[in-house]
Amino acid sequence: MRRMRKDTALSVRIPGRLKTQLEHVARKESRTLSQICEALLSGGLEAYKTEGSTYLQRLLAPPRSGG
């Protein structure tokens, strides 16, 4: 993976449970929270480039009720 110059900041508000899960992954992988978020965002963008809006629809679809 090519290293990109980091020249801007992005601030988002997320649920506390999501941040906790991301922090857990960062600790497990011996990485910073920023590195994990960047990797997941990059991976998601690549999936979007491949699948298009189908990718987002799958992620953003309301949860199905099991039964």
Secondary structure category: mainly alpha
Specify the helix fraction band: 55-70%
Total number of helices: 3
Count of DSSP strands = 0
What do these coordinates show?
This protein is mainly alpha-helical and 67 residues long. The protein has a domain at 20-60. Helix content is 60%, strand content 0%. It has helices at 16-28, 33-51, 53-60. Helix 1 (16-28) crosses helix 2. The radius of gyration is 15 Å and the shape is globular.
Concise structural overview:
The protein has a domain at 20-60. Helix 1 (16-28) packs across helix 2. It is mainly alpha-helical and 67 residues long.
Observed structural traits:
67 residues; mainly alpha; 60% helix; globular
Blueprint of the fold:
Layout: H1 16-28, H2 33-51, H3 53-60
Helix pairs in contact: 1-2
